[in-house]
């Protein structure tokens, strides 16, 4: 009787071990070309374990690249297309400078009493005419340059969204690679290679067993003893008729009472309402999800 009573009082709460489980889903739609994993397999974070067919995305990217190159060829060459105006302006400048020299020479002759007034009037009219021609050429050149700049800006504006589309496709191509997100053990496999998958469709479930939790239940009387980050002693059946003990830390305490689960024993078995707590322990590989355990304060 003493032995039974001692065994009954050797723990404060019992429960089962849990781990943070993560369901990894597909981020792309298409045929699964590879999926290299098995249930029970240990995976490292960042490991590429498969890929989804990305042929259509790749071809769309190539099409956008070709369209950008084609638009680049269509961009106007402003300097080449305004070269004719530059040549006309240069020729008129030569003529204008020559007329200015003649104007000065005739003006000097007139002042000396040799030239005639009509000669000066004729050369002045020629200078004014060339000045007007220069003004017209420069306006035409400015208008042509402005139109070509507008055309070039419009084409470059079309290229911008195409580059953004390429960035979007690159992101989608990246998501066609199935990359394992955390260190852990594969618990369930939901898909196979050569199957059709869709965005958000589960592929497998993985759990990080390096840190595992004992979810146990305590009574209202024990609640006052439990505190976050409190150290407790966790024990489990070692399979040899004894118990394996380790230190754990209370990482979570429920703020709501619930009815005692049928599979759970408490220190006071007559208690109807209990509070759930989680005790975090470092797993050396011994603890498995679903194993029963107990702890004492």
Number of domains: 3
Mean pLDDT level: 87
Structural class label: alpha+beta
Unreliable stretches (pLDDT < 50, length at least 5) are 1-9
What coarse outline follows from CA principal-axis ratios? rod-shaped
DSSP helix fraction? 40-55%
Per DSSP E runs of 2 or more residues, the count of β-strands stands at 13
CA gyration radius, whole angstroms: 43 Å
End-to-end Cα distance = 24 Å
What's the helix-strand series?
A: HEEEEHHHHEEEEHEEEEE
Helical element count? 6
Strand order of the largest sheet: 1-8-12-10-9-13
Strand content: 25-35%
Report the major sheet: 6 strands, antiparallel, barrel
What this model shows, in words?
It is built from 6 helices and 13 strands. It is an alpha+beta fold and 297 residues long. It folds into 3 domains: 2-20 and 208-296, Elongation Factor Tu (Ef-tu), domain 3; 21-56 and 178-202, OB fold (Dihydrolipoamide Acetyltransferase, E2P); 59-175. Strands 1-8-12-10-9-13 form a 6-stranded antiparallel β-barrel. The protein has a 4-stranded antiparallel beta sheet with strand order 5-4-2-7. Strand 9 and strand 10 (243-253) form a beta hairpin. The longest helix has 59 residues, at 117-175. The protein is rod-shaped, with a radius of gyration of 43 Å. Mean pLDDT is 87; it is low at 1-9.
């Amino acid at each position: 009787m003493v032995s039974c009573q001692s065994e009954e009082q050797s723990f404060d709460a019992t429960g089962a071990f849990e781990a943070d489980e993560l369901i990894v889903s597909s981020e792309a739609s298409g045929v699964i070309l590879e999926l290299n994993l098995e249930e029970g397999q240990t995976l490292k974070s960042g490991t590429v374990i498969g890929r989804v067919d990305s042929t259509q995305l790749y071809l769309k990217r190539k099409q956008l690249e070709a369209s950008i190159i084609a638009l680049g060829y269509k961009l106007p060459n402003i300097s080449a297309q305004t070269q004719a105006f530059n040549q006309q302006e240069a020729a008129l400048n030569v003529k204008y400078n020559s007329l200015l020299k003649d104007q000065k020479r005739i003006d000097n002759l007139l002042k000396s009493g040799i030239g005639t007034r009509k000669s000066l009037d004729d050369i002045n009219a020629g200078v004014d005419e060339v000045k007007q021609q220069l003004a017209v050429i420069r306006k035409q050149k400015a208008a042509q340059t402005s139109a070509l700049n507008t055309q070039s800006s419009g084409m470059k504006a079309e290229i911008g969204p195409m580059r953004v589309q390429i960035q979007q496709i690159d992101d989608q191509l990246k998501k066609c690679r199935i990359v394992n997100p955390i260190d852990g053990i594969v618990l369930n496999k939901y898909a196979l290679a050569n199957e059709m998958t869709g965005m958000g469709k589960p592929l497998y479930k993985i759990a990080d067993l390096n840190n595992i939790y004992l979810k146990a239940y305590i009574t209202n009387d024990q609640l006052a003893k439990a505190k976050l980050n409190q150290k407790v002693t966790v024990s489990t059946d070692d399979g040899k008729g004894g118990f394996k003990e380790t230190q754990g830390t209370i990482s979570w305490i429920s703020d709501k009472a619930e009815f005692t689960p049928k599979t759970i024993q408490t220190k006071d078995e007559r208690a109807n309402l209990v509070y759930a707590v989680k005790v975090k322990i470092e797993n050396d590989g011994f603890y498995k999800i679903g194993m029963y355990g107990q702890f004492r304060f």
